[in-house]
Amino acid sequence: MKKRALIAGLTALVMAAGLAACSGGGGGGADANANAKCTNKIIHKDAPKVTAWAWYPNTQLVVDNFNKSHTDVQVCWNNVGQGGDEYDKFQTAVSAKKGAPDVVMLEADHLANYVIQGALVDISKYGANKVKKNFSAGAWKDVSVGDAVYAAPIDGGPMGLIYRKDIFAKYGITKPPATWDEYAADAQKVKDAGGPLFGDLGGNVPAVMMALQIQKGAHPFQYDPTKPKEVGVKLDDPASKQVLDYWAGLVKKGLVGTADQFTAEYISGVVGGKYATYVSAAWAPGYLTGAGVGKGNDKGQFAVAPLPQWDPSNPVSVNWGGSAFAVTTQAKDKKLAAEVALGLDADPASLENGWKNLVIFPLNQTVLKSKEIADYPLDFFGGQKAYGEVYIPAENGYKGFTYSPFQVYYYAQLQKQLTAINGGKIDGAGAAAAVQDAVVKYAKQQGFTVK
């Protein structure tokens, strides 16, 4: 199958998976620069403009900081939606070959999908490697393939275990579990004493399950965009099955809940002490604070510990989420757009605002190596120095993931099977086999050679 047909199939996948094309006007590149209505104020009006889409709450400040310090270029920013809402519009622009911004915020696990469509620029030729030393190996791997670099890292999601200090104290858990065996044992102890659920297996967070499988030793995908017709798919290997079976066992015993996360029901449970732990990432304190957690009777009750390990003699750090700035192929001046992608949210003032206000977990090592962030007490965790104790070591240990060009489809299939596990309809091994079969079948239908 020709590459054009392969790309067409992947575009259809994005649309079918909820990133559907939507009607819209406006051209990308030069047209966008000439006609865009900027949310922000342009400070140096005679300078050329680079359009950008981004959704973080402090983006206005970040853009203003950039524009104040640059006389050679100005950022014209718009928030067209967060995550999937933005991807709707970006996919429309990619398919139409017009309407995209010069610079776009993307989550790392979505990059491969747009790279194979020819929508993103390799910015290694525009100075990206000059800042490579500012990032961990894992952060850089997530945005690059070989010598090619497709985005500038901004925010990461090194994972940890958030827990309720009051629940742990009430049921005699003197320290957070260091292994997943200890996690299961503590969960059983709390249940036997009539306590709450120990955690939650949300069917709608398949990225968490993928991360835990990788932590166990799984390698879900092998993919190199320079060989766009080939992909390795190993979703039913022993490690993947064992992790799914582990969580299926916790569900079956009633030790963890099955509520979808990021819902009012789930947040109500977190606030009300329904869950003793929350397996999440460094951005979670900001999300929970914004959702009203930690502001009432549960204020000061949360703490965070390193993520439990499958093999404590071989600790593995994993990641959930995080974003980067990519340059689109519709940008008229790609060099100037790369300057913006590499410079946005890279100045000290923007970075400090981000991590102090729980907007981002910065990936810039200049920040992460500073005593200020390591010793910074987070109010959400009752003054715990969570960055230095948990999240920075986790980020520095993260080696990076390999994502597939059909990551959205894979997540949909894994979510389907997690829901089946939660409903008692399938065990972990069966779920892994079902995901493998569905993804391999789909990949072949799209013209991939599956290794």
TrEMBL record:
Name the SUPFAM superfamilies on file: Periplasmic binding protein-like II (SSF53850)
Note the PROSITE patterns from the entry: PROKAR_LIPOPROTEIN
Q: Which UniProt keywords are present, listed alphabetically?
A: Cell membrane, Lipoprotein, Membrane, Palmitate, Signal
Residues of the signal peptide:
1-20
Is Metal-binding tagged as a keyword? Answer: no
Q: Does the keyword Membrane apply?
A: yes
Q: One Pfam annotation, family name?
A: SBP_bac_1
Q: Which InterPro entries match?
A: Bact_solute-bd_prot1, SBP
| Name of the protein this chain belongs to | Sugar ABC transporter substrate-binding protein
